[in-house]
Amino acid sequence: MTAIVTAQKPSNRAVIGIILGGIGLILAIVTGVQSGAVDLTWGQIWVGLTGDSSEHVQRVIFDIRLPRTLIGLLIGIHFAVSGWLLQLLSRNPLAEPGILGISAGASLIAVIAFVIGDWVVSGANPYNNTSPVLQYLPWFAMAGGLVAAVAVYLLGLRNGQLSPLKMTLTGAVIAGMLHALTTGVLAFWGHAHTELVAQWLAGSLYGAKWDYLFTLLPWTVIGLVGVGLLVKPLKVMQLDDQHVHTLGLKLNRWRAFALLIATLLAASAVGVVGPVGFIGLVIPHISRKLAGANLPVQLVFCVVFGALLTVGADVLGRTLFTPYEVPVGVVSAILGVPFFLYLLSRQS
Amino acid sequence: MIRTEQLSLAYGATPVVNNVSLTIPEGGITCLLGPNGSGKSTLLKSFAGLLPARSGEVLLDDMPVSEWDRRRLALRLAMLPQKPIVPDGILVKDLVALGRFPHRKWWQNNQAGDNRIAFESMVMTGVSELAGRPVESLSGGQQQRVWIAMALAQETSILLLDEPTTFLDWGYQLEVLELLTKLNREHGLTVVMSLHDLNQAAQFADQIAIMAEGQLEVSGSPSEVITETLIRRVFRVETSVSHDDNGRPFCSSYAAAYKGEKSTPYEHRNPMASEA
């Protein structure tokens, strides 16, 4: 009879969902390498991957499309997992890096670093498209994101306990203020770089290179290890605060750790591709709907579908209107909204 | 054993409990009673170490509860808040299994023994048939039994409950109180709860402590504590108290004692009221 109580197993529906998502992701990656301004044939790709082909094809695959696709995959994971953590922490289904001020804090510091760095280093050549600061942007962005997150967290306390409602409201206000400051910085000092920065702020994978991938990857690893450690405490942290205390969990410590991991994930991604909104909001919702209450399965969903949405959105964004590109942040929002609304309508 | 010594508690600058010295005997059912805002829930929370004492102390096994390690405390004492939060979509068995959390390191998953204990807890509270159902889909009374099952899975000898009957209808209220009595009688569980209904407290409690305006008014057995004068003074209700076959007091034919008066019923504050 005790077989009734066994460890949480993923439902069949969840397993099928993950498999389908995985297949979709592989298709999106392959398509991402194959299509773009110049469509390659499958034969060219095969030869290119096995190393024996023209320099042109190799350059298109290895220098442009592969790193870009992989970075898209990583930032999808970053934003989705960060949003998932923040929604659990704040007990608020609207929480995401954008609404809690993390993305805005990261953007502001990144833009300031961008403008100052460019002015100092390459002031003579304002039309230089590859700013030397870009490589360090994740660090600046993370600093900005962390400061914003800590401020929102501290202001969200009521009598020493986190008030999820107060935290969300504070986050929205601080995010608004930081956005205004970012726009102000651009208006005053952005001049020649406005276009490049605006593209970055829209969340774009244009020009993404291996450097960026290697800048981002350590944070992906740290973030995923951290969230792995958090899975069991998070199960308990969903309960009422008093309940959590009396179950023996050191709530303040774990909450701070979870917030740190969520901030590192979101802010490092903002540093590389700009504040891509929406993924952090919609993917955790989709994951909860498809995975049920099982947190580890939800997390796997976030990883797979976060990656799928960004890679897919990037592929569509650069193939639909070739040779023009629609930033990934724009396409992911356009793709995600209808699906999100569909899920909401089915719920009620 | 829980004991408070001249305990005072406050929320920020607002004092809520003043100078309470109370002993909760092991193995009994203790009910905290009192009007709204009398400090009974606050006092209960302090037993679980959820509020720092402003002065005085809460002692659990003769050690200040504030000095207990949270995890060790969780093995000694479980608490059910007044409005527990049901995690989105969680199943009954998974919620009950959370009660095993303090028995494992934070990275360890529950093992076979944990699952057996969680299952036994569900059997004891009569929810094992509901194991695979989402908690949200259950009735209020069923949910309350699931929460109690989770607390039992924690395998503590003390269970604190903050108004466990407040959001239930009459039938479910009695069901929960009878379940707690059974757990007390058959498993020796020490039960401490805040309640609103005097008659229910009189029927089920071994000890009743009555709070009024942050102070401990009186504590003792139901027949010692429940008297017409005390109820008039503390609860502002005129009653006639009779006793049933077991000698347990029972209040009937009630009416509000100080109709329309804003003043407090306390004699020292309003000498006229005592004549009412």
Report on this structure.
- The complex is a heterodimer of chains A (348) and B (276).
- Chain A is mainly alpha-helical and 348 residues long.
- In chain A, 74% of the residues lie in helices and 1% in strands.
- Chain A has 13 helices and 2 strands; from the N terminus they run H-H-H-H-H-E-E-H-H-H-H-H-H-H-H.
- In chain A, strands 1-2 form a two-stranded antiparallel ribbon.
- In chain A, helix 3 packs parallel to helix 8 and helix 8 packs antiparallel against helix 10.
- The longest helix of chain A is centred in the N-terminal third of the chain and has 36 residues.
- Chain A is globular, with a radius of gyration of 21 Å.
- Chain B has 276 residues and is α/β, with parallel strands linked by helices.
- Chain B has 9 helices and 12 strands.
- In chain B, the strands form 3 sheets. A 6-stranded mixed β-sheet of chain B has the order 6-7-8-3-9-10, with helices on both faces.
- In chain B, a hairpin with a 2-residue loop joins strand 1 and strand 2.
- The longest helix of chain B is centred in the middle third of the chain and has 18 residues.
- The C terminus of chain B is likely disordered.
- At the A-B interface, helix 8 and helix 9 of A face helix 2, strand 6, helix 3 and helix 4 of B.
Q: In which range does the helix fraction of chain A lie?
A: over 70%
**What's the tally of helices of chain A?**
13
- Mean pLDDT of chain A, to the nearest integer, reads 82
End-to-end separation of chain B in angstroms reads 41 Å
Content of β-strand of chain B: 25-35%
**Uncertain segments of chain A of ≥5 residues (pLDDT<50)?**
1-5, 124-128
How do the SSEs of chain B run, as a string of H and E?
Answer: EEEHEEHEHHHEHEHEEHHEE
**Count the helices of chain B. How many?**
9
